[in-house]
Amino acid sequence: MRRPVATPALRRHAPNVLLVLVLSLGAGSCAETPHYSPPRAHTYYVSPAGDDQHDGTSADRAWRTLTRAERVPLEPGDRLLLQGGARYPGTVTIKDNEAGSANSPVRIGSYGEGRATIEATDGPGISVHNTAGVEITDLTVTGRGSALKDEGGINLYNDRPSGGKLGPVKLSGVDVSGFRAGIAIGGKDHRTGFRDVSVSQARLHANKDAGLLVYGPDFDPAHPGYAHRNIDLQGVDAFRNDGDPTADHRHTGSGIILGSVRDATVRASSAHDNGARSSTEAPAGPVGIWAYDSTAVRIERNVAYQNHTGSSVDGAGFGFDSNVSSSTIQYNLAYRNDGPGYYAYAKTANGAHRDNTIRFNISVSDGRKLPHNGGLSVHGKDIRNLQIYQNTVVMPDSPRGAAPALRLRRGEQGVALRNNILVNESGPVVTAEPGLEPADVALQGNNYRTTDGAWTVDWGGRSYPALNAWREATGQERAGQRATGFEADPCFAGGELPAVRSAGDAPLVVPDCPGRKGLDLRALFGIDPGTVDYFGTEVPVPPPVGAAVPQASDSGT
After folding, report:
1. Handedness of CA 270, 154, 58, 51 (dihedral sign)
2. pLDDT averaged over the chain?
3. 445 — alpha (psi -120 to 50), left (phi > 0) or beta?
4. Cα dihedral sign for 472, 477, 482, 488?
């Protein structure tokens, strides 16, 4: 999963200069006590039945075109409403002398029946440039022509010379397609960018590079900085963002990408069927939901499935890429992706990929195109203090061959995998490159299962046919002087290799018999493992292994 730092070439779209609408306001005063009335907020309407000679201030006096609407600056509290069910060529721009109030946001949306559609051809559908205090709701935004090549459909960009992060911005109930990125949020440098941005109930599809992209400047590990702060994504569905078959030097076709962010959450969202047309020659491929150059990111309770890669790398469900720190992937479901369900990767040995957690996730039937990378993959030049625990990985053979549940490569320091269920159909259940000592990667308290009965682990170029032989030779599966780990049938409700084809099939990987106890992570390692499993069931102490508490009421030893 070799990946260059993502520095998208999305056009830094500066809106056209708007004509200033000068209103002559009557003023009254008295000798001793001046009176001030704040400007009254306006609602402007646009309709195919309107007339650009109207004043736009009522549905009966609506404008007809976005070109006319662009001539009026939007002050705090103003609304621009487009009649639902109709299509409007052009772009809505909100620039630095507009909006700007957190308490009185400018609102862009639809009125009447259904959503209005903005059709952009040579720019974004909606551009927010060097301002905030904006809410965009209940709109469809489509692009064609150069918009597909260069633009963000809803494009937020901050390059103010004076710096400062702008916010808030709220996007909800939008459907965006036909752009380089459906929603793009960018900052020129670490001083600029956005804060307090929320995106909810959004459908982002048929875009080229990504459904949703957050980006900023190149990362400096000596002086870490982030363009954006407090990005919240909920209920985002990113699908069929196919990628660019001609982009041989960069990744295209991802679902959701978070870059240059401090404090971000992706939850209750999905990424599926992305990347199908990404380049066969690209050195980095697409991923369903992933982060890079960021800190304090939570990716939780999402689903990623049937994401693809055109090349021989990536195509994963979820991932932490280069320069991610203090972040967590938890309570997610990945299935039938071309690459691993979950991965961690660092391109550069700079110490910036550190203190991350991957826990209580499920991966089933991933690695469909690239089975050798496993269902869970950890590799790169410098990954530090990565905690991977309480996950369930099930890897049936793919059409391209046998697949390990876990793939490890050199470059780790202080990585630990504990209390996981690792199941595959044939071949080694774990593969690891030479040079990985227990101080680099420690496997403790995991359940390893190969359903065809020919259990092996490939470690450092040698094959071990039994857990005890591997333990004695490598020092893995020990906690102090205590032997840990086991080989047992996890008794999945859906059989040895459950077939998960939807999020509703996740209960098929719940163990249907008393589970073997894992390690007490808090007592032994000082790790707070949380209190609930993938399904929200309370986890006993010590916990059973895997992402789900067994259906049986008691636990075995």
Report:
1. negative
2. 92
3. left
4. negative
Per-residue pLDDT for 179 more than 50?
yes
State pLDDT tens for residues 140-160: 999 998 878 889 999 999 999
pLDDT at 147: 79
With a cut of 70, say whether residue 227 has pLDDT above it.
yes
Rounded average pLDDT over 181-202: 98
Cis ω before 396 (30° cut-off from 0): no
Residues 6+ apart with CB under 8 A from 511: 490, 491, 492, 493, 544, 546, 548, 550, 551, 552
Looking up tokens 């440098």 gives 189
User: What would the DSSP string read from start to end of 126-177?
Assistant: EEEES---EEEEEEEEEE-THHHHH-EEEEEEE--TT---B--EEEEEEEEE
Residue 557 in this model has a pLDDT that exceeds 90: no
CA gap 170, 192 in Å, rounded: 18
> What's the pLDDT at 148?
83
Predicted confidence at residue 11, as pLDDT, reads 40
| Angle (nearest 5°) at CA 101 between 152 and 235 | 45
Q: What are the tokens at 421? A: 């269920």
SS3 538: strand
Pairing of strands 482-483, 478-479: antiparallel
Sign of CA dihedral 404, 309, 410, 480: negative
Are 211 and 254 in contact by the 8 Å Cβ rule? The answer is: yes
CA nearest to 365, candidates 353, 356, 374, 354: 374
The amino acid sitting at 39 is: P
d(CA 46, CA 57): 9
pTM of the model: 0.93
